[in-house]
Amino acid sequence: MDSINTLSSSLISLEFPSEIWEHMDPMKKIQYFNLGRQPYEPVWDLQKELHKQRVSSDIGDIVLFVEHEHVYTFGKNANLNFLLDSKPDDADVIQIDRGGQVTYHGPGQLVCYPILDLHDYKMSVSWYMRFLEDIVINSMKLNEIKGQRKEGLTGVWVEDEKICAMGVRLSRWVTMHGFAFNVNPNLRYFDSMIPCGIFEYGITSFKELGIHTEIEVFMEQVIDSFDCFLKGALSEA
After folding, report:
1. Are 163 and 141 in contact (CB under 8 A)?
2. pLDDT, one tens digit for every residue, the chain (237 residues)
3. CA quadruple 226, 232, 235, 237: dihedral positive or negative?
């Protein structure tokens, strides 16, 4: 796979996660897939299988996009008390293998799971986190919203409100999990948790900021940002 260096920004939309195997192209350095709206666990299972195949170099880099059904996920060392008893009954609760505290996923939120081999870019967790933040900040700029980092914290912020949460897992320098960007979710689901274990700051979304855009439009902007920053990373590797 080391000789494959052609980036492709074509997006493939799937009805079911299992359909992804019909569309794998070993000649492409990276492929982007839109899974639509899906429950959490089948997509987590897909991530794990993609990760396994990327580690063995059977496939190239993959980026998954999805809107999840309502779910709260806990990182492997998360404090379970950060999810309150007042949580809505229609949301699942799942313990997973990423880092970080409790996070909410649901309709109106664009979730992005990159499965990237950092041997091809830079073998650094901090570089990878800044890389994801750069992608989100650049995509927000295209909508005339200034995203920013907050010292000592992950994710992307608009002043003191988080608009994009991040949590990743790396094994053998191949990534899993990723980021969740609030386009137009129902923010009441955040009222029943302490987002990422952070007490003093709030949550916002494009909709709250007066930006009315479709998730599919923002997805294409994120893909453009991925292509731009990945080309830069390849040239520096």
Report:
1. no
2. 333 344 445 899 999 999 999 999 988 899 999 999 999 999 999 999 999 999 999 999 999 999 999 999 988 888 888 898 888 899 999 998 887 788 899 999 999 999 999 999 999 999 999 999 999 999 999 999 999 999 988 899 999 999 999 999 999 999 999 999 999 999 999 988 876 556 678 999 999 999 999 999 999 999 999 999 988 777 676
3. negative
Q: Looking at 112, 164, 196, 228, which residue is catalytic?
A: 196
Instruction: For the full predicted model, state whether its pTM sits above 0.90.
Output: yes
Reading the block at residue 12, the tokens are 């493939």
Q: Which residues lie closer than 8 Å to 232 by C-beta, 6 or more apart? A: none
Give the C-alpha separation, 123 to 226, whole Å: 18
Residue in 195, 213, 194 with CA at minimum distance from that of residue 157: 195
Bridge partners for 67 per DSSP: 37
Q: Which two tokens stand for residue 203?
A: 């949550």
Q: Is 196 labeled as catalytic in the residue annotation?
A: yes
Tell me, what amino acid is at 175? T
Residue ranges and CATH numbers for the domains of the chain are: 11-236 (3.30.930.10)
User: Residue type at 53?
Assistant: Q
